């Protein structure tokens, strides 16, 4: 295959998709679905567009295999988060190329994966690859707002269109240099979410006479306590595999601390002793603990009145195996009983897929063919993706959007000047094609 032509083709799709503004809200993913349907129709592939609500489009297409194996689902979301245009160097919806990078909202999250999967899908058809399993392509709405009009709705209302044994999704496939080693991760798990409102109470009164029992001050004390809290460590299977793999790869001083963490020992000290940067240590902390991050505050109605209640919204994330109930015990142990903790429904549990699978093995093998120095590790993603909706159908979901992050490109996800290196679009499309075509020919 002419891989530079494949790269240019995927870059073209990505640029076109970026020019279709799918900022969520309102989403308007239907326009992107119509674009994809046209591209597919040019090659005689029928696509179905399903609208969860006006404008909230989801697209599904299928290449039939012999049926010897169960389907493989290629999925990615079409919606993007809002931009602050004044802070961007180039038009966030221009799809412009400068100095080897394609700029635009969604360039990394996740119109890149949509474009790569689309190119892979089309090339499977063009090459008449003899598939042993169906390959399904889904480009869905609303991931950035929780998936109610996207993957969650598809799993609930159109499960028959997307049911599969395996899925390839966002959340992994990235390589970066850690202490001189080229480390790639494949997402095999992700944390759950249990957002809550934290309420503090106090005696109302006139602000001209200060009092210690003030709801605002009580809330401030609770938040300070929360900020300093040390919650217990929870080492999931995925996290243990990741930490052991990283220890083996890095060796030296880092290995001892990483192995302690893998065994659930000495959390704070082991983390502090890791010769890694602050960002990486923060990530490891989040991988190993339930976390609670206050993000919104609300109290009072008038400046001269002491209110009786003050509240904070807290974004909390749970390691696999944890629930809102188990986390409530941890919160009570830190905060005591005097505060009200009200979880927002629904809360979600963390998920894990088995890293011992033929698809996972294919991903590792292909990555190493293209990057012989690659060290590939299973990863517990500390945020949430659409994987949690699709796993409800019994699908094993892996996050795999292959690229190598040379210079902190991934830090621009949801930020300003989001961009992707053109070489990475080519790298990702090529590896994905090889993984999908090899895997889908086996049952
Ligand atoms: Zn995102």
Overall tally of structural domains: 2
Share of helix, binned = 25-40%
CATH architecture of the largest domain: 3-Layer(aba) Sandwich
For the biggest β-sheet, the strand order reads: 1-2-6-3-7-19
Q: What is the CATH top level name of the largest domain?
A: Alpha Beta
What does the average pLDDT come to? Answer: 96
CATH topology of the largest domain: Aminopeptidase
Number of helices: 14
**Which ligands occur here?**
zinc ion
Strand content: 15-25%
**Sheet with most strands:** 6 strands, mixed
Structural class by sheet pairing and helices: alpha+beta
Q: CATH superfamily membership of the largest domain, which one? A: Zn peptidases
Poorly predicted runs of 5 or more residues: none
Number of strands: 21
Q: Which word captures the global form?
A: globular
Description:
With about 450 residues, the chain is an alpha+beta fold. Helix 8 runs antiparallel to helix 9. It has 2 domains: about 5-180 and about 350-440, Aminopeptidase (3-Layer(aba) Sandwich), CATH 3.40.630.10; about 190-345, 2-Layer Sandwich (Alpha-Beta Plaits), CATH 3.30.70. The strands form 5 sheets. The protein has a 6-stranded mixed sheet with strand order 1-2-6-3-7-19, with helices on one face. Strands 8, 9, 17, 18 and 20 form a 5-stranded mixed sheet that branches. Strands 10, 11, 13, 15 and 16 form a 5-stranded antiparallel sheet that branches. It has helices at about 5-20, 30-40, 110-125, 150-155, 160, 215-230, 235-250, 250-260, 265-275, 280-290, 325-335, 360-370, 385-390, 420-440; strands spanning about 45-50, 55-65, 70-75, 95-100, 100-105, 135-140, 165-170, 175-180, 180-190, 190-195, 195-200, 205, 290-300, 305, 310-320, 340-345, 350, 375-380, 395-400, 405, 420. The protein contains 14 helices and 21 strands. The radius of gyration is 23 Å and the shape is globular.
């Amino acid at each position: 295959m002419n891989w530079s032509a494949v790269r240019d083709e995927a870059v073209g799709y990505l640029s076109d998709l970026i020019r279709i503004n799918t900022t969520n809200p309102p989403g308007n993913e239907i326009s992107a679905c119509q674009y994809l349907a046209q591209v597919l129709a040019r090659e005689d592939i029928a696509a179905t567009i399903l609208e969860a609500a006006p404008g909230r489009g989801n697209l599904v297409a299928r290449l039939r295999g012999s049926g010897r194996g169960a389907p493989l689902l290629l999925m990615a979301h079409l919606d993007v988060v809002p931009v602050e245009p004044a802070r961007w160097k180039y038009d966030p919806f221009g799809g412009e190329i400068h100095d080897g990078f394609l700029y635009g909202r969604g360039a990394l999250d996740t119109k890149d994966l949509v474009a790569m999967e689309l190119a892979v899908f089309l090339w499977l058809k063009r090459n008449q690859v003899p598939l042993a399993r169906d390959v399904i392509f889904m480009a869905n709405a609303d991931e950035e707002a929780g998936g109610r009009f996207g993957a969650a709705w598809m799993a609930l209302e159109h499960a028959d269109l997307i049911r599969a044994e395996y899925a390839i999704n966002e959340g992994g496939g990235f390589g970066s240099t850690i202490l001189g080693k080229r480390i790639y991760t494949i997402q095999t798990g992700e944390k759950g979410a249990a957002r809550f409102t934290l309420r503090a109470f106090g005696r109302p009164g006139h602000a001209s006479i200060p009092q210690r029992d003030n709801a605002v001050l009580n809330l401030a004390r609770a938040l300070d306590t929360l900020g300093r809290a040390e919650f217990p460590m929870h080492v999931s299977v995925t996290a243990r595999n990741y930490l052991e793999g990283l220890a083996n790869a890095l060796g030296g001083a880092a290995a001892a601390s990483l192995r302690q963490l893998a065994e659930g020992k000495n959390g704070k000290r082991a983390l502090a002793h890791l010769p890694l940067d602050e960002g990486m240590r923060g990530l490891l902390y989040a991988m190993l603990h339930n976390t609670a991050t206050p993000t919104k505050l609300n109290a009072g109605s008038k400046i001269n009145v002491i209110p009786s209640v003050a509240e904070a919204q807290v974004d909390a994330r749970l390691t696999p195996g944890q629930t809102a109930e188990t986390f409530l015990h941890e919160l009570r142990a830190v905060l005591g009983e005097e505060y009200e903790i009200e979880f927002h429904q629904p809360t979600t549990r963390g998920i894990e897929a088995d890293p011992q699978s033929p698809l996972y093995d294919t991903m590792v093998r292909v990555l190493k063919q293209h990057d012989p120095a690659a060290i590939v590790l299973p990863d517990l993603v500390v945020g949430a993706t659409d994987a949690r909706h699709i796993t409800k159908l019994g699908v094993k979901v892996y996050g795999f959007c292959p690229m190598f992050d040379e210079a902190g490109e991934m830090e621009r996800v949801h930020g300003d000047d989001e961009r992707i290196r053109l070489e990475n679009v080519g790298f990702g499309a090529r590896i994905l094609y090889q993984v999908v075509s090899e895997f889908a020919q086996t049952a």
